[in-house]
Amino acid sequence: MTSTMAGACPHCGWPDHAEPFRVVSRHVTAAGHTAWIRCGCGSLQVRVVDERGMRVVSRSRPPAPAGVREPCGSAGG
User: Smallest Cα–Cα separation from 11: which of 48, 46, 39?
Assistant: First the structure.
């Protein structure tokens, strides 16, 4: 997990409070809602929106380029 304190994606610099690139899913909670957002760089982030406002609580790295990824089932030989 990458730090979420910067206020912007650490991979591409897109501001956290800007319009999300793509909403993957949104779920209503007792306190507000949780949204899974895909950044333009491919990073996946989880945003919580409640009475305190919007905050990014988790963020992944962008996916590795296709030539760098391990094929399925390759870890173990």
Answer: 39
